[in-house]
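User: Fold this; tokens only.

Assistant: Input:
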Amino acid sequence: MFNPLDLTELAVIVREIMIEDNIEARLAGVDADGVELIEISQSTVERRRRRGDGDGPPLLPNYSSSRAISDFTVDTYDVGEGAKLLLGSWPNAPWMHYHVEGRRGHNMPRRDIVGLRPECMEKIQKAMNEWLATKFTG
């Protein structure tokens, strides 16, 4: 019988949507609100070239193998009876907060990629509705 408090299966579905959306948003070069990220400066282009880094867009010097994509993870926490918390983060990129906040005096503009884009929220809502429908219609 369906246990209305067991959200584990739904959490797995939502986790995958969040991971997929991070990839889509980073490759599209947009922040959590869907706004285009500020282009990289010429000095960053030159520094990347000197270091042998890739020539990708903001936060993705090496495109899909860049840490803004490859290090993104979503952890699931039980936070009470019948409640789950899904938290997306970049645990192996402790410097990510500098990009999110921007750094005055260091020529680093704010590129806030933290959060869920409206498109992601729509996908999550649709997945939740479909999951609930399967539970109550058998």
